[in-house]
């Protein structure tokens, strides 16, 4: 809705820079009576946490979430229960090395927002990317961990489906494999390919892009809205807000441009249980902006990390030409850690639409 | 942002169904003192208007825009000047043939929103797709015609770059060709290919998807916002709200997933005029959600028209299985008429961010 | 929420000037399945309509509401049923006499928004007050007529309780009297007093202020929100948006400043039916921003009509001092016709909070 | 705009309960380049701080504000400069005595939001009023301290003008006296009257209401908006969101109901400097929702503190009738500490409208 807030009834406002004392979010509009533990939140935080493998940044942050408001402790002393008031969550920045960035305080790193921040604001927190650091996404994951609990039965999962030119074999898709490798890969056969490929890129100080797929199951049919605030529109918007994302698609996505109406439309039948079902899911679970009840399928493309060791031509804030290399501890493929972030954004979007639909139509409980 | 409104300072609310008496929009927050003529609006309306070639629907609508509020007539009696109050625009529906749709009033057309509307609302205006008809986009084009005038110097143009499997040759790109063929094709060599291809599809009663590219030039560097309400996010969101759109990308888009950081980042230099410039535009004119000053480049994929003459399996509102064909007058490639709509959505997004940036930073005039 | 829209889930956007071709509103987010007739809307419109007695403006407008979208006709051909899509309502301006205003096109009428519009926008529709004409409130009444149907059982009524220095005797309060006099007075004894008082003011070409009280019954306990978007806050906000309103109070209002905690707080007991009830309603039906289930009671003060026949000192757009009298056909007490407008605003606020509460808590159906 | 956020371009989101670890706010949309020190913020915090005299609660909180994001330290090491990104401010709760409230955990205190919270949410943080504690207003004062710096030259001041039946003598108004007494009284002669009156009320364990007046000077003419989002509407809305406020008025307010158009309208002349000026300010600095450039004058009524020592009849969460007295450390006149809170809310509203006007019209710098 506004610069650092998204959602209408389930609203998330994030704040914080990479090298300040802390970052966090305020989740407003969360229904009362939702029960969770800090350990549950931490489970999701740990998936996004840096320093977990050689394929992600070696910065080490514990990413411990403190819940400062909006909850009451249950009798067991461990379970927290939401009260319906805003939930403030805070994550301290513990492993900051501002000196790494000192020499580029006035230089514009290619592919980064350095230049555009300076043009817009005339001032910029250069330390670690400041507000535009991917560290901001920790707050999204924290918010998403609550959003997952808003819609009964909904399950939101993500997987990496492409790194550079290497795509998974979709026939091998196995959700249970996602946790068995450092890539969130659902295809075990791609893992050694990516390991070798990415090790090579990392050694060169280079980086590479990726594509992530998010699948949400048990999304109630009927949530969404027809024209603006379409469910797919809001998913696209929220995924596009993740750092480095350059493209988003739903269901067949760009592939839909290449096929005929006969191939693309999903036919329907009545099942033995008397309920309607679809014979395919080209639509990615959304028709006319409204959920069909099938799995919601979204993909997004993440560009290669802009921080690379190769020397690049740029300019500085004084208008002088410079050549610069971005030191620091960076992800060779920032797309990997984008998987839990994408899940969080889809979970928040679905929670918001669920509450809005319940509001307007009174259909859901 | 809300169900039928988009934008924050330059806000557009649309209303109306395909077969009601009229449809329209309210443009709120438009700056005062903007001068325009009805003929200028009509120019953009005519580009989207049905019945212009054999490749689009044969429904005939004049799409005459009436401006009901928010303007004063200038001394010349022809120029209208905005006063800063909401501008209500109305377009009458003149060529409705509700009887065409009678027999599918209770049947769910595959690929359409019929089923999801019924699940959500329990009631549905089945005539011509009702609210989810692409006729709603006429109101967007009307709003966009004003949005184009908000940012001094900005030019927003669109072109069709792919129909089905046939893509343009980008080396042939010539903006002046776009108006010379019924496809908004910037490549004259693709025109006969598409003509034959699409004629064949039309004769079969089938349909096909397409990809549209929108380019906005002279977008002031610095507009946008860093985290949520990114310029690319809002462009993606607003393009995704167009009927039948299944994917959106900015700059390199999904292609960015396949390349390295060295290949993707845009280097900078200082020109002879002392001003910074970029050596490439992989970013599509946006870094960290903020405009770089380069052309903003967005593409979106439109699925094939779901209304086809081939018999398809579906169900009806009574839970019975049916086979149905969608009669009526449909676009074989709805992507064609999406070109001016995409332009309008990008123009509105840029106008909105321009006003917001001017508000927060006071930088622009 | 934004300049010409109010409400979050039940959103009303109004547009139109006094002397343009028409004015109207778009009601977005209205639940589907609400049934109404045009005659029902007209009932509320007629209460606000000008020309009904010698105590209101003699301008004659039929104020016929056309519903352009968002509804389907029921089988009876008369009842309209909302479909959940935006409802566009239009009211034509039929009795415009722009020439009445010609000579004050560049003069700033004291108490009017002429000067401030010119400062803000640099352009102003001077005809009949343009956008700031009380004619805009016709659109609110139209929207309110739908809002009244959103919350089951809710009844919103208003009455005039004070004109100038003459207040009603609250002991005489009888809702059934409100329709029996041209003042919406609930106290029959005040009617002759006001008649004489207001006739005198009208003959002098003067005007006078008033206070209106709105009472909403059967408001579900629990709607509202604790801190911002309080039910009383949103009622105050929406009443304050009515032309010429200078003060708003809830329950005891300003009177609460003069009494002790013992006198002001409403005690509770359990009724014979096992349900809680309050022994008094000093709070006006709202505690901590949330409805108690008691009647919601709000009052608002309307300043005297600024258009008077007495010559007043002012300036014009060229910075010259002028003396001016406001001709035209004006209400000697604009507070009278504000009664149905106040009802409409309270009805819309309650409908919105009802849907929002249903969304966040899932409590209501 | 939404439950715990207010403002459109200058947006404040508050969070936190009375007895949690902390409370705070996120200020989003603040312009970049605003310079402030923590000492400046603390100046305003201290005015609202409890424990300052025998006439306010004896709870002791230092109310130290930590700024966690959105700023860079200037070279002097003390001045902070806003960067345009969201500013998170946190205030720890240090003097909590939850045991004071233990016995009323399930009882509904008359005049409090206990009952309505339980109805709405089914769960309630009973400790010290939870979210509805006036402690939440500390976050508003912190946000307001930044808002004061957004509009060049604007000065927002407040004063207590009435406690119970004792009003100040407006002829004695002297802003320099406001800081010389524990009441924010602008009339030194009222101070001994209020001291005696309030001491008596405090000794009885009772409480009393009050009226506060806020005056904003140097508000740029032209900010505001004509119909919804009027400047007076948004001031009324934001003042009404303060705990215990039951009425709001602008300029003549309810007094405008009692006078004629001749008496109420403010005439204009041209000054020797060639600039327009008003001969009076009955309008309270706002015409048609837009600032005239005169001082903006708003008043609001605060009800007596509901927490009193007198035994009152009520019920508990089990539906049983109880008699209860509210122990704890309470303000006998919560209106006193509402003065800096009212100032903060008006300052935030003006800052927001300033940015919005600059956005839409480009008039301001």
From TrEMBL, chains A, B, C, D:
Its cofactor is FMNH2. GO terms for biological process: amino acid biosynthetic process; aromatic amino acid family biosynthetic process; chorismate biosynthetic process. Pathway: Metabolic intermediate biosynthesis; chorismate biosynthesis; chorismate from D-erythrose 4-phosphate and phosphoenolpyruvate: step 7/7. GO terms for cellular component: cytosol. It holds the Pfam family Chorismate_synt. InterPro entries: Chorismate_synth (IPR000453), Chorismate_synth_AroC_sf (IPR035904), Chorismate_synthase_CS (IPR020541). FMN binds at residues 131-133, 243-244, 288, 303-307, 329. It is an enzyme of class 4 (lyase). Signal peptide: none annotated. Keywords: Amino-acid biosynthesis, Aromatic amino acid biosynthesis, FAD, Flavoprotein, FMN, Lyase, NADP. Reduced FMN (FMNH(2)). Its EC number is 4.2.3.5. Transmembrane segments: none annotated. One of its GO terms (molecular function) is FMN binding. NADP(+) binds at residue 48. It catalyses: 5-O-(1-carboxyvinyl)-3-phosphoshikimate = chorismate + phosphate. PROSITE patterns: CHORISMATE_SYNTHASE_1, CHORISMATE_SYNTHASE_2, CHORISMATE_SYNTHASE_3. This reaction introduces a second double bond into the aromatic ring system. Homotetramer. Belongs to the chorismate synthase family. This is Chorismate synthase. It comes from Rhizobium setariae.
